[in-house]
Amino acid sequence: MNILIVIPELSYRGGERIFYTLAKGLGQEGHKVKILAARVKADAFKFEPPISLLTLPGILQKLMGNNLIFYIILFPVLFLMVFINSGDVDVIDSESGFALWASVLVGKLRHKKVVWTIFAFESDILPKGLANRLFRYIYGRVDRFIARKADGYKCIAPRISRSLKKAYGIDDVDVIIPAIDPDRFNNAKPFEVIRKFGLKGKLVVLLPATLHLKKNQRLAIDSLGKILEVFPNVVLVLLGSGPDREDLVSYAEARGLGGSVIFAGVAYGDGIKNYYAASDVVLVCSKVENEGLSMTALEALANGVMPIVSVGAGVAEILSKKNIALVVNPDVSEFSQAIINYLRTPLKYENMIVRGKRWVSEELTLKNFTNKTLDVYESLFLHI
To answer: What parts of the sequence cross the membrane (predicted)?
Structure first.
């Protein structure tokens, strides 16, 4: 089977990584996979053969670097790219938004099957204002119409399937939790991180996420103040980049916590494994109502590290049901106390981590992820 995966842009973040992992699994099963992206950001992770990346040539890529131009011409660019590269394709697997619009339109023109993959469902991402509300209304109506023309639907968390049913009236959505690729975490070198940031003798609390309001790093910073009263050697490591970096730096410094918060930037390639290996706890503080799935919590378990997760995070429902993490209300008092309790008596929670690591290693395998996805693809051709 030939599959074309369509994403608006490639960076270092979760959705692209999930698609890349899927492409790796499909390739191992003998299928041909191409990933198409209109823009490749400077912090994008590198592709390895045999997975091929289709993108624009250099001069056009530079043009797409301008955000205003990118959003204005994204749909026609994606449409042309998908049309040109879909001649020998059996299935087009697309992310949301303009990528989906282009994929569905090309699918109808070329008689190709289209699957919509939903990583997150944030129904209101624009600032308030009459013009934005009007745009959101028109965009929402068009998006709902086009989305319902796809041939198949899959998402990465149960809460997303419920949101799709409510907002789009789409019932038949396959929930497939992505694989945790163990190859990414082999041969970790925690001492590289410890030496780089002077963490010897420190308790390391790691929060790997885009530096953005919806990831709620302020909860971690506020909690840090209370944790330091009990464990003066605690350091909070914020791993990632994003638009809120300067605001978070100022926020930490204004609370006298600047010396205990490390802004580590992006871990390129598979460098994140060194951070997991150097950490005592991994946090997920998200507060977005319809966030997809916080893969970092699952990656932490794969590395034998305790995740402490906000009840509002996308992964919280799964972790709570299986009792394989500490899921806490995003309240400073409760969140900080959960971290303190764990750091004080980590052995008390050892069985929870062992159980979580076993579940990840047995259930979230590349083979399971690939086979469940192939089931969705193959089901599209059953009633031709």
So the answer is: 68-86
